[in-house]
């Protein structure tokens, strides 16, 4: 039986036919398709019968075309971005919901975002709301205790839990807690969703402790049974020693795990520990999980070793990275678009910079060739403190937020992958967590100082025409979001993940 959704899709497809489509052919298509959709009440006669001849047939057909045109017009004007933009906020900053309102005027001399820039026409394509957006729904406020994966259509409708939890019958309530789940990334073709999970399994009703299971898992947009991966450390430790303590992958809600462009591998940092007392060492490296075999390999050139520093041995106000022997900790990997390199942040590189009491740990941005293992440092660690780098769609630039050690606050920067052409795109000290959009623009968070609120903004790749976005799923969809702040969360620092869709369906 025809549903309203099927009918809507049918009308939309007719409205998207070539402008030179003949009315007679369109009318024939209408009448042919009406045969294929029985009416909701089977006691009614079908719309097309042999006795529909002559004038009566023509009148019925004309009526059908008029009705369809009315429905089509309603659908057309309701599409995101085709209505006038929302009214300006009390601050006067424009709220953009139409990509055409986000054109590319020249950047201001300072590179600082300018609110209220006049929109100009643009060839930026409108992104049709199809597919879903995955996001975490968490309990516990600023310190969430449990998150679950929810999805919502790109037009902001049909929000629902992706993997529903059914309580076990006949067991104590404390054993019936749902898994903690957190969405991490879609595969590039949108067929798989990668997420982290944590759950406690019990041997029976008398088991008050249980066994904790933590790992990565794959599902899809329909919530199919997940495929889980719990063995995430390499088979061989980084060093042969009788005092090897542990290897772990830290899959909390701040973890950054990278899905390869071909959907076959996942990269993430591992943490190892060996020794004891003054000889204890903390080590990190990047590891790659092969999703087809479940095997894990280490990238040896990314290995770091950090002597454990006892805080009581430090001078007052001295950071933990104070020793020159500290090689830092690897975090936040991301694959290059061609799948040949990873970019990642190495934090807490010693020794610290600055006077005692105000010293800061250095950090650096690195890339590694996943085939040869060649390691390259992109930035000088004394120039900028930064994190969360993202490749541009063409792989030529890296986008990140950072802070000048001599200044306060965060700003958005780009740098070429070879370490040249470092540019500040904002200079307000309150811009952070940038990411690329489908249209090679930049979406980012801005901390509105004094208001206690964060806002979602969009600017061009050169830092120009910064415009505040309406914090809704439809508005972010129209802006071309891939990974954007989650407008459905009380904290915009959570990310929402737009399911990739083929270019011909955007």
Structure in a nutshell:
By secondary structure, this protein is mostly beta strands. The protein has four helices and 28 strands. β12 (281-290) and β13 (296-298) form a beta hairpin.
Explain the overall architecture.
With 506 residues, the protein is mainly beta. Helices cover 11% and strands 33% of the residues. It has four helices and 28 strands. The protein has helices at 4-15, 23-36, 54-78, 473-478, and strands spanning 95-96, 132-139, 146-153, 160-161, 180-186, 193-201, 211-219, 227-229, 244-248, 258-259, 265-274, 281-290, 296-298, 304-307, 329-335, 341-353, 360-369, 375-377, 385-391, 397-403, 411-416, 423-424, 431-436, 442-448, 453-459, 467-469, 483-485, 495-498. Strands 9, 10, 11, 12, 13 and 14 form a six-stranded antiparallel sheet that branches. A five-stranded mixed sheet has the order 1-26-25-24-23, with no helix packed on it. The chain has a five-stranded antiparallel sheet with strand order 4-3-2-28-27. Strand 17 (360-369) and strand 18 (375-377) form a beta hairpin. Helix 1 (4-15) packs across helix 3. The longest helix is centred in the N-terminal third of the chain and has 25 residues, at 54-78. The model is unreliable at 1-129 (pLDDT under 50).
